[in-house]
Design brief:
The structure holds two protein chains of two kinds. By secondary structure, chain A is of the alpha+beta class. Chain A is built from four helices and nine strands. Chain A has helices at residues 29-35, 81-85, 89-92, 114-120; strands at residues 8-9, 14-19, 22-27, 38-42, 49-50, 55-61, 65-69, 74-79, 101-104. Chain B is built from nine helices and 22 strands. In chain B, the strands form four sheets. Chain B has a seven-stranded mixed beta sheet. Chain B has a six-stranded antiparallel beta barrel with strand order 17-20-19-18-21-22. In chain B, strands 7-8-9-6-10 form a five-stranded antiparallel beta sheet, with helices on one face. The longest helix of chain B is centred in the middle third of the chain and has 15 residues, at 231-245. Chain B starts with a strand and ends in a 9-residue tail after the last strand. In chain B, 48% of the residues are buried. The chains are: A alpha+beta, B alpha+beta. The interface between A and B is medium-sized, with 29 and 29 residues.
Chain lengths: 123, 396
């Protein structure tokens, strides 16, 4: 069980877990719930250079399409193949098995705290 | 992560609209997520769009459609008023029969699509889309002037529950409390009437002594029933159906309703139908009764027909998992230089078929089944074949 209070958050409903210089990125339970059943994810391949604030992937549900923004500058070191194969992991375990990408980064922008994010989504 | 405009974005979920279904407390207790729909807070899903969709295809789903509009016409001139007001010949339907029809503008554009029930010699109930209910009531009132009929918008006094799917009939038969309207009020009589009820037919019944109109209609491509009753009785009926059905009955939100109707090739107002579309463009030419003698609103424009190059509605089927969505453009080829031939009106990854499906308006010369077209899916041209509608047809 991931301790969600220790994660960083963005206003784009992404969460970031930082371990050394690697940031693991996913979308929040709130976003997954609002999207509905995720049926397809398109993630950047390992080695891709990403720029903070740009679109790097897509998360499609039966009903709509969400864009995945890079919350940091850096290089993708891993995309979660398990989620590509079983997109429903985004719904069933958004903070765990449903993580999306890992990015090697040398600097972190200012993120929302857990409390700030929960306030943003009205919880 | 953000959503595209026009889709259910996380930010759009704030409780901004005023109108609540009479089943609101039931939905909240069941943990539904809500969406703003035509000024109503309605359930978009309870647990999972896909599970709800599959429940309707394999067993039964329960829908709250209390936001729909019900406009009642009563009087000796009601049938003639509807013949004048709508594209169909409503005077020709029998008591207990329902008919899909269209409310047209003078220029032939579609103001709304409707289901009309004849509930008496001189009584009809017109069911309108929630977003158009007020406009439909206003138009019907204006068009019925001079006919001997009263038009009343009873939307606030009528709730609507739909039970849809292969198990809908058996659940309804097993649910206690139903009777037929009239002397005796017997459950066995109800069962006999329900057994004999054909598609697009309805009969007046009772549930726990109070009136309910039981109609074999729906919008999912499955067998099913729509139950019209007083709002204060709706929660009791919903719970009775859910309790009787047990695991056979799944409460379903608007998200699953949208994928179900898309698979069934049924048009949705605001997507496939609008004031800019003539019925024949949307494949609804047969709904317009040009054989009827009456001068109905829109008749001249319909007789004139759309321009020869006016786009027509087609089905598109693709491979893979990336679905075309509403407003995506359709092209004649994969290259950047290929001609734009149309636009998608609805699209999804079909839960039943497992591949992307869409409806689109395309140029008539690009509309023949088997034609290979390309949809611009957020910058990538995805091949899609023109196919006949519906995408899904139940076998039983």
């Amino acid at each position: 069980m991931t301790d969600t209070t220790a994660l960083h958050y963005t206003e784009e409903h992404e969460w970031i877990a930082v371990d050394g210089d690697v940031a693991t990125i996913g979308i929040t339970d709130y976003a997954a719930d609002k999207l509905g059943d995720v049926v397809y994810v398109d993630l950047p391949a390992a080695g891709t250079t990403v720029t903070e604030g740009t679109v790097v992937g897509e998360i499609e549900s039966t009903k709509s399409v969400g864009e995945l923004f890079a919350p940091v500058n850096g290089e993708v070191v891993e995309a979660n193949q398990a989620v590509v194969d079983a997109p429903e992991l985004v719904n069933s375990d958004p903070f765990g098995e449903g993580w999306l990408i890992k990015v090697a980064t040398s600097s972190l922008p200012t993120f929302l705290t857990h409390d700030e994010y929960r306030a943003l989504v009205g919880e | 992560m953000t959503n595209e405009p026009g889709t259910a974005s996380p930010e759009a979920s704030a409780d901004v609209s005023e109108r609540r279904s009479p089943l609101d407390a039931v939905h909240r207790a069941a943990g539904a997520s809500f969406t703003d729909f035509a000024g109503w807070q309605m359930p978009v899903r309870y647990s999972s769009d896909l599970a709800e969709h599959r429940a309707v295809r394999s067993s039964a789903g329960l829908f709250d459609l209390s936001h729909m509009g019900e406009i009642v016409l009563i009087g000796p001139g009601a049938a003639a008023a509807l013949d004048h007001a709508l594209a169909g010949r409503l005077s020709a339907i029998e008591i207990g029969q329902a008919k899909y029809s269209l409310l047209l503008a003078d220029d032939g554009g579609i103001i709304d699509d409707l289901v009309v029930y004849r509930t008496g010699d001189d009584r009809f109930m017109v069911v309108a889309n929630a977003s158009n209910a007020a406009v439909v009531a206003e138009e019907l009132r204006a068009r019925a002037a001079g006919f001997d009929t009263i038009v009343s918008d009873e939307s606030d006094d009528i709730a609507l529950i739909a039970i849809q799917g292969p198990d809908a009939r058996s659940v309804l038969l097993e649910t206690p409390g139903f009777g037929v309207d009239g002397p005796g009020n017997d459950e066995a009589d109800f069962d006999a009437k329900l057994d004999a009820l054909k598609y697009y037919r309805a009969f007046p019944a009772t549930f726990e002594g109070e009136p309910v109109l039981v109609a074999r209609t729906g919008y999912t491509g499955e067998d099913g029933f729509e139950l019209y009753l007083a709002p204060e009785r709706a929660a009791r009926l919903w719970e009775a159906l859910a309790e009787t059905g047990g695991p056979r009955v799944t409460p379903c939100g608007l998200a699953s309703r949208d994928t179900l109707r898309l698979e069934a090739g049924m048009p949705l107002y605001g997507h496939e139908l609008s004031r800019d579309i003539l019925p024949v463009q949307a494949g609804l030419g047969r709904v317009v009764a040009l054989a009827k003698p009456d001068a109905f609103v829109g008749r001249e424009a319909i007789e004139q027909g759309p321009a020869a190059d006016a786009p027509v509605l087609v089905g598109l089927a693709a491979e893979g998992r990336r679905a075309a969505r509403a407003d995506y453009e359709v092209f004649d080829g994969a290259d950047a230089s290929a001609a734009r031939v149309g636009v998608v009106t609805s699209g999804a990854l079909s839960p039943t078929l497992g591949h992307p499906i869409a409806m689109a308006f395309v140029a008539p010369d690009a509309a023949e089944p088997g034609r290979e077209l390309y949809v611009d899916v957020r910058g990538t041209r995805v091949a899609a074949s023109v196919v006949a509608l519906p995408f899904y047809k139940r076998t039983a």
